[in-house]
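Re: your question from the hallway

Yes, I did run it. Sequences:
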Amino acid sequence: MADTFQKGTSLVHEDRLFPANLDMRDIARRLYSEVKDLPIISPHGHTDPSWFANNAPFGNPAELLLAPDHYIYRMLYGQGISLDALGVPSKAGNPDTDPREAWRIFAENYYLFRGTPSRLWLDHVFNEVFGLSEPLDGSTADAYYDVINTALQSDAYRPRALFDRFNIELLATTECPTDTLDHHKTIQSSGWGGRVISAYRPDAVIDADHERFQAALDEFADITGEETRSWTGYLAAHRKRREDFKAIGTTSSDHGHPTAFTADLGAAEAEALFDKVVAGKGTAKDHELFRGQMLTEMARMSVDDGLVLQIHPGSCRNHNGPLFQSHGRDKGADIPMQTDYVHALRPLLNAFGNDPRLSIIVFTLDETSYSRELAPLAGHYPALKLGPAWWFHDSPEGMRRFREQTTETAGFYNTVGFNDDTRAFLSIPARHDVARRVDCSFLARLVAEHRLREDEAQELARALAYDLAKAAYKL
Amino acid sequence: MADTFQKGTSLVHEDRLFPANLDMRDIARRLYSEVKDLPIISPHGHTDPSWFANNAPFGNPAELLLAPDHYIYRMLYGQGISLDALGVPSKAGNPDTDPREAWRIFAENYYLFRGTPSRLWLDHVFNEVFGLSEPLDGSTADAYYDVINTALQSDAYRPRALFDRFNIELLATTECPTDTLDHHKTIQSSGWGGRVISAYRPDAVIDADHERFQAALDEFADITGEETRSWTGYLAAHRKRREDFKAIGTTSSDHGHPTAFTADLGAAEAEALFDKVVAGKGTAKDHELFRGQMLTEMARMSVDDGLVLQIHPGSCRNHNGPLFQSHGRDKGADIPMQTDYVHALRPLLNAFGNDPRLSIIVFTLDETSYSRELAPLAGHYPALKLGPAWWFHDSPEGMRRFREQTTETAGFYNTVGFNDDTRAFLSIPARHDVARRVDCSFLARLVAEHRLREDEAQELARALAYDLAKAAYKL
Amino acid sequence: MADTFQKGTSLVHEDRLFPANLDMRDIARRLYSEVKDLPIISPHGHTDPSWFANNAPFGNPAELLLAPDHYIYRMLYGQGISLDALGVPSKAGNPDTDPREAWRIFAENYYLFRGTPSRLWLDHVFNEVFGLSEPLDGSTADAYYDVINTALQSDAYRPRALFDRFNIELLATTECPTDTLDHHKTIQSSGWGGRVISAYRPDAVIDADHERFQAALDEFADITGEETRSWTGYLAAHRKRREDFKAIGTTSSDHGHPTAFTADLGAAEAEALFDKVVAGKGTAKDHELFRGQMLTEMARMSVDDGLVLQIHPGSCRNHNGPLFQSHGRDKGADIPMQTDYVHALRPLLNAFGNDPRLSIIVFTLDETSYSRELAPLAGHYPALKLGPAWWFHDSPEGMRRFREQTTETAGFYNTVGFNDDTRAFLSIPARHDVARRVDCSFLARLVAEHRLREDEAQELARALAYDLAKAAYKL
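Structure:
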């Protein structure tokens, strides 16, 4: 069993992701050497705060690395392997799957991940977290399972120990307005030095298409003592909970709407819309209008309370109807769709986009908007910045396209560094490492092509790895 | 005249299409050396089965290489050269054009193809099929014409001899359900060993916007003995003909719809729609709905009879009205248009996409869907795979974009290798060679950047050149 | 103060923008060495003809380089710097800003432009026009200001002297049909040898959404003596003014519509539409239809008078409402939007696209159309050619994407070389130099990958830098 990080084996080459051209590679190496050990700022993600509150050991390899990670089981499912065989929970509960058997299936099919970022992240985890150096396949499946399983039972692999070992300076989780934030309070009163904050994610109380909308409104009333079925009370409840989130360190809200649509209705019109939607009388169009109006309301609150506003649109959720019936949400069946920003964001930007006190961070799954819409918008509006390459595009080629297609119009300083957006805690160092390597490689090209001096690139490498995230998220 | 393949001349360099970086080039060379001589699997194309049934000599150079190839004459037409001057047939018949004169015009304007894949394919054909080594231009036009013309009269250049020489293991043509398949039957009973199959392409009996729809329905009745103007008889006719196609080796159907729209109507609703459309009372929207419903019906049949379902949407056919009037279909005036897959394919995928027995292969002319829609869909649904870079994108840059934009989400194993989709028989080896070189170059970059081991890349090079096509098309 | 061009300093490296790979770099150097000193053809731009008519000295550095250039102040504004502080005029007039103070703010924030083409152009101007060689930042701000300010007062920096020094063979400005063309007449009768022509840009008299539409129609009547509120008189007025523009050397018209929509109405229908629109009774849809019809009318006139028709669609103008209120048009708040060409251009192309006498040049801000729509269209229609990478895409990465995504389908010869489209006169040599370097680098890759012979690349390098612009714009 490994309790140190081992490098340089065949699983993770020290020059991985750097350009093959030797001149560029040398520049990339120099840039990377100055940023590789910077602490990790993870301002947007989906880890479970109870891990750090309770600090209990993680479960077995399959339960930790396989069953919760839709990046991984979607690929296996897509090749005809059943989710049951992988131990992925359904609405009926956890399937009765031997975790070692699930792991073997994964190992035998690990070749499917060739060329994907999951492969890079997993090899990094295997090698640098668990000290493994032979490639994973059917022949090494059991050895892998044993090494990882044993490690997970040791204190060095408990959540807080890993957090410290990973050199994480800050980690943000994501919670609903109806969350008690008890785990975060436990962490903060524990005496442990790790900084774990939350992000305010009110989708369930904003999106009337969400299956829990009505129930969430009730819980929202309970936790705030506000009348959340009146427009005034509803807004007051948001303001109250935003303060609660701020009290445990939160600096941002987060909004996962189907589109980037925003609206800026008059007060009376907004109230009438709210009444209709809450009464369950809204059409699909009313629901969209209400979501759009609420982004503008959130921006208005942000101007007052300083929370950064994150907008993540463009996913067609639960595309696979039968799978949604059997297994519910977040099972790898969310598919990106074409997304307009230029018209969609205009009401919000015309209302608050000229205010430099406000910070709006926009993400996209539609790469066509990088050069056409997002870079021109972020390069103009003082309030707007671009989140990093996101989700399916959180990958070497995706990051490269992001830089190539946004930098010339928006520059580097209207972007916000990297965030990992992950629930796979063990992969966080791997993901930040990939981002640092890819950004250093992009910068190395600019230097090698004499478009940037190396001292500038060095400053930028640090900004992209650390400074910009800290500044943009007001940390 | 040449009867052997000559290499290494100025027309086709042995390192063509490999990366300029020497480390990557060396890797690419090694990968390519293991796949360059693999037999050609051509599971989707548009060659004429009568060539292999009759084995008659091809005509003159202009008639063989110029007049039927809209990749070539569209470029010349676009620079103001008339189709008549090139010998391209119109509705009025073949123009009275001296083929040598047409060839000279082509040769004088061959510089227009610089940077296009047509140039790569043609130089390959000139050099490796005809042994020519001087560049084609006005000064060499006549010499070219004579060499090619003489060769075509020899037995070594008859269709079957070339098929054998090209090392083609399997070639699929494409036929309508109203085709007798006589040529295929002739080939199979001829004693010649070449394997030539068909693909079932029922557009004319499915697309009510097709000018031959009503006539084709009648022929469909004649050839099947079914009542093709009743819903039950119509479906039975499809089932019958699919079996006929299977009997001569067919393993796939092929559907060239304007969009990727699919529908999954109830039985009564589908029948009512059919009745309306067949009666000529359908609106444009009804025609679209019927096309969409039929893709789902074809999938239903595929689950039973095992045919692979190919969908090729997104071309705005016959964009040039005056040219369509004078020259008819397929004259280089089909223009790609923006194509949605995420909503369009949902009904079909929700009905049959979770069934691993089914194999659906989707192609696109809208590259924006690679990373946004197609790779996420193919990386999730067991039944769905991605066809290669298609038509205008069947080119070095197009193939590179395909790999760069699909691999990270769909991996390599949700793609189906290369197919040439061509009616230009002599260019088939050239096209497969380009694909093998470009894929090896892409893999070489992954190896040089330490994202893949070379032994994995070698396995993948073979899969992309040969194994995946064979598996995906159930050959 | 510098009166010679100094090279090779740290600001502009002699190998800038060439590939890092040494083999490719050597090829790129050789190609570039043959085209770098070719005269500049600038057939499309927005410089002020009064500069060359009056030949008065330019103002101070901030007034010349900062206040009029929305590429520059949009980035500074986007980071929270007020336009007043930069000396940018508002509707209230010029702010009372010390130009040296504005320059200092610019200098301190010059790092924001890292990775942008503005940085490349500005460093080129600083170094090659003003002989500066230290990087611009807060510490060099005053020295820069003094050097530039002193230079601008010398005769060597007057407009005509710079025009001659820049080796400009032809420069086109852009004027409304209501312009007297007096500056152009002055230039032509001045005895100075510089060739400055105009482009006919009738947006204000065609676009009923333009705030000056009605007033412009009146001026259009005044300057032509035609009844511009009758369809016949209106068309006659266009014809007359097109002749006036031709008389001072104009060879093209230019159309900046929101979309690429075209229409081809019957004569009576067109007249009825015109009457409705001019009477102020048109809907938004009527205005769009009228703009579309007028593109076809302009094409009809072009067939007669030979003017090249330029179409520049796809910008959502004045996106920032509050800024438009305070500062008016052209303040960096025009944002590209998704643009269809395949359906939009069909009426125009079906009417005139098969006529090789006509030359239509289309530009786009939506890069997704390069490979999907524009290259296939330009590779087929005799009348259609592709303008270069435009506006936000006039950049190294933008130009590379343009070549990579258009060449394989349209070839090089359906493109029209480079144009700078700028109002920043001093940056014209820098912009053409960037284009020449990027095109030579693209060609070098094709040569290094054995897709093109070097002698062909050399011919192409010259065509892209000089010949194609001259031919396409009929100069």
